[in-house]
User: Fold this.
Amino acid sequence: MDKIVINGGTPLTGTVEISGAKNAALPVLFGTILTADRCVIENVPEILDVDLTLEILEKMGAKVRRDHTTVEIDTRDILPCRSPYELVSRMRGSTYLIGAELGRFKQAKVGMTGGCNFGIRPIDQHVKGFKALGATVDTRGGYVEAFADELVGCEVYFDKVSVGATVNVILASVFAKGTTVLESAAREPHIVDLANFLNACGANITGAGTDTIKIKGVEKLHGCTYAIIPDMIEAGTFMFAAAATGGNVKINNVIPKHLDSISAKLSEMGVYVEELDDAIIVRRDGDMKNINVKTRPYPGFPTDMQPQMTALLCFAKGDSKVIEGVWDNRFRYVEELRKTGAYIDVAGETAIIHGGAAELVGAPMRSVDLRAGAAMVIMGLAVNGRTEIVDIHTIERGYDNIVKKLRGLGADIRKVSF
Ligand code: EPU
Assistant:
């Protein structure tokens, strides 16, 4: 097993390159099933969730060649209902197999998926969309099974804004007869990236990035070469790490617009943020002010930056409030952060962070999920003393070479086997 060991207290300085977005790469990689052709996907992050996705696709019959961040996939010989339960159950993103299999083969069978555990993760909105397209769906027995004689364009009004349901129903409707209209769709940049990829393969999708998405069914898709967008959450994590350590970091390969809600909060705290064309500079010399923040679907402040925000606010002066507005149990990591001496109260979906209450010190911590682990890394970098983080596979699910990138910014951090 591996752990991350940090001797904290060094301000981060220098330049870091951001990798491709996990939450765009997964739908695009599963989306290649629809093309039944060869696709070349570039800027794919080197993370465990991508390793798992490619393994699942291979087990289903795809031919995969990977050269660092470039992945060539040929899904011609893929068969539906063949994904191994023990693999798909490890990752939430594998729900996208349902939409992709249903779209191409009009039948799907996929094990109930896992992923980060922060509350109930229902799929009722995915099922609602599949049924509206004409599919019969059965979610009993640990699998989701769906089939249809014919998929027909329809209107789906989501009761809850869901990234996963939006992706899945787009995938399922690409070949449906007529036009499918998704109302109250998620607007995240990764939804736009998926639509751009599918359109590059010959699909007819408009409105991605707004809450109304129209998919006109087409007969067939072809392969293409496509590059994944930069990861806004990885970029945000480095921005917060720079601020927490009182550093000065240039973060390259970003789309600054995607980071608006994150940059705005940093500016409100008194941190210097400068947007360049495809880079962002974050610098802090003075104290940080306390703020309040509530997570919301895009373009609101992202839930996937919530734990990192809590960690950062431990270094601001005064009381801050963080309200989780997306998931119902995403504060499990607070217990671990408290080991540093951090004074954080949690009641339901609200955390009150009493910043500057005491000098914080390094501590052993257990990463309970991907972004929680990132928050612990930020904490470890910013406090004096030694921090050891275990269960780091949760972090490596979604951060590409995080230890190496932080070392490049001068951090005393290493991965140690034990
Ligand atoms: N929801 C429903 N019914 C559904 C689907 C979702 O009620 O059918 C609810 C959920 O319970 C939750 C909310 O809707 O309260 C949002 O869930 P969503 O479906 O948007 O989440 P997801 O697709 O399962 C993706 C990301 C998560 C990220 C959320 C929200 C991927 C693979 N995962 O999950 O990312 O937190 O969107 O932005 O894209 C992460 O990267 O660390 C991560 C957990």
Remarks:
- The chain has a mean pLDDT of 96.
- The longest strand covers residues 316-323.
